[in-house]
Each structure stands twice: as C-alpha cells, then as structure tokens.
From TrEMBL:
Signal peptide: none annotated. It comes from Hippocampus comes (Tiger tail seahorse). This is Transportin 3. GO terms for biological process: protein import into nucleus. GO terms for cellular component: cytoplasm. Pfam families: IBN_N, TPR_TNPO3_IPO13_2nd, Xpo1. Residues 451-466 have a biased composition (Basic and acidic residues). Residues 30-96 form the Importin N-terminal domain. Residues 426-466 are annotated as: Disordered.
Amino acid sequence: MDGGKPSLALVYQAVQALHHDPDPAGKERASLWLGELQRSMYAWEISDQLLQLQQDVESCYFAAQTMKMKIQTSFYELPPDSHNALRDSLLSHIQNLKAGNGTPPSVLEFLALAIADLALQMASWKGCVHTLIEKYNGDVGSMPFLIEILTVLPEEVHSRSLRIGANRRTEIIEDLAYYSSTVVTLLASCVEKAGSSEKMLIKVFRCLGSWFNLGVLDGNFMASNQLPVVLFQVLQRDDTSTNLHEAAADCVCSALYAIENVEANVTLALQLFRGVLTLETAYHMAVAREDLDKVLNYCRIFTELCETFLETTVRSPGQGMGDLRTLELLLICAGHPQYEVVEISFNFWYRLGENLYKINDAGLHGVFRPYIQRLLHCLARHCQLEPDHEGVPEETDDFGEFRMRVSDLVKDVIFLVGSMECFSQVRPAPRPRDAAGRRPHGGALHQHRAGGRDERGRRPEPPIPR
C-alpha cells in the first residue's frame, strides 16, 4: 500500500483473482495483496464503498469480512467523530443487502459481528439493543438479521479480540441486562409468527441460549414466558429435525447452567426441572429409532440437570428438586451401547463423588451407593474387549482413552462402594450391543464425548470441575 489508496477496479481484480484465478501462484499473490490492504487505513473506506456498490458476492464477502476485522482489531484507528457515521453506514448496508438476491448468510453474519463489536466499543452508543429493535422490528424481512445481531452481541462481550476494559464490559452487561426482557418478548413474538418455520425457531433458540450464557435473564420473567414451554415441546416431538433438536437442547443446557444458583431462580428452576423429567420417553424413542444425535442431546440435558441440582440432591436427596430420578436418567443413558453417551456424564459423577467425600456422612453415602454400584456395572461392560481381541488396547485410540477415563472416574467414586465389593460386583458380562448386533466404540460420535462445551458455551470436558 506504499503507492497510496488503490482503485476499486484494482481491488475487484484482486478479489476475482483470489476466487477464480486457475494459477495457484496468482491466488497467492492476490491473497497477500488483499491481506496488506486489510491492514491499511484505506480498508475502512474501500470496504464501505464495496458494500455500497454490491457489484458481486465475492467483493461483498471480502468487504464484510474486512469491516468486521477492522472494527474488532483496529477500532482505535478511527477518530471518535466518525463513529456515528460508521454505525449508520453499516446499518444501511444491512438494510440493502438483506433485500438483495443471492446474498450469502456469511456476509450478513460478518456484518452482524461488525455491528455487535462496534456497539461494544462505541461508548457513545447508549441503548444499542433498543436502537436495533426499534429500527428493524417493524420489517419482517429484517427479523432474521436482527436476531443474528442479538445473538452475537452477548457472545462478543467477553471476546478477547476486543480492546475494552473491565469497567466497559461491566457497563455493557448492565445495559444488556436492562433490555433483556425486551429481547425475550421479541423472541416470543417471533415464535408465534414463525409457525412451522424451522430456520426461525433455530435462530430464536440460539439467540435465547446466548442471553442465558451471558447470565442476564430474569428467572421469574422467563418462567412466565412461553419460550421454555416451546423448547420442551420441540424436544418431545418425534418429527423434530436434527438441527432444530440440537438448537433446543443447547438452549435448555444454557438455561440450566444459568440457574445454577437455584435459590435465586426457584420458579424457573422448578419449571426446567419438571420439563427435563418429561423427556425420558422421548429419549427411549430416540434409542429405538437409533437416532444417536438426539440420544446425545438428551444425555447432555440430563447431565446438565444433574450438575445444576447437584448441591440440592446431596443436601436433600429424594426431596423436591433433590429428586433422585435425575440420577436414574443418567443411569439409563449409561446403558446405551455407545460408550460416548455415558462419557458425557463423567464430570457429574466426579463432582458427586467429590462432594460426598468432603461431607463424609455414612448415612448419606448409603443413599448414593446403589447408584454408584449400577454405574460401575455399566462402565465395566463398556470397557470389556471383544472376545477375539488380541493384545492390549492402544491408550491413544478412542477406546483406549475411554478406558483410561473410566479408570480415573472409578478412583474418584470407589470409596462409596469399597474396593473388595467393587471387584466382587463387577463380573464379566457381554458388552452392550446396538439394535443391529454391533458392539460399537469409537467413530464419528467421539466428537461429542464428555459433553464438551463448544463456542456457544457448553460445559468443558471433565475432570475439570465446574
């Protein structure tokens, strides 16, 4: 960029070369040149012009990506008196692009991130949520994009890429908390209007989960809202698609994680507790249909339920929200032939053992001992090798890693059963088979193991306690 600001024609040429040049060397040169452009001060004006002209999909994608990157990493380059103009320009681009034909979702997603990051860094933009809802709420065609912004806004609050201090983050969270009920009301309205629109429901559940993860939703207000009811209706239906089912499951897990302080969220906690207990039949139906994606989703929900109510369960087992049916749900999952299913719950069993060990109450240990015995039976069956297996399993493969994790878990809970009783109880038994008679282990489902939290904030892998 030493030669000054490049022309738009030259930028278009480089973007086209990056996407369509048959010569790899030409693509590489274009990539390096465009990367240098993105790091320059000229990138602000050029990306704004490209978005305004909308000449082709490739240039819009490059411009939206550049705008997002510049706001995220180089916002300090802009003088404060240009912030309002940048905000208004971005909102205008979105209004024009969403009405255009063939605009890829990634372009709008980049712009949503750009606006979210701008709102978080632009201290003069007060009540950004109110501004966005007021601007787009009346336009049905803009609703998907509005929800996209409202989804990424809470997610970006703790982004390490944004150069904002702790005081500014606190101010942002307080502002978002103030408007959280308005957002929930908007989402509930979207569900009512969505009808059978799966895409809209997925967007609504993702957005709601994002606000749950930020921890700013009012429990009493949520309990009086229709959205939790809709979530469990979706999870109970047999015809729910895999994508919608996962979005609903993620949202319920986020809600359960958010109400971990049960005493402060009693009304919502009770609603979620009862709702999850209704999913047992749906779990069995998923097992019968060999729908492993849904099985894993249900097990994640059951595990999150047990994690959230762990202290209540230990403090008052069998009473109220200490109902031991929650443990029964996990043991039902432990009987599934895929060992990845039971592995999701390992962190809970570890934490349960840790809590009981600290309390050191023989009577309380006696209450939970039968559950640990049944868990050990299931784990022993999952860990058994095939009869025709030769040698020792590799510790680095999926099954070998699972056996090592089982070993660690057993060490944490065996004090409840006693080593001698454990060895006498764990007798050789055939490993569970699926409906086709297979004895599965490893494979594609291994990515779900341990209920690991993804970028949307789900729980980290055990044995890290929550």
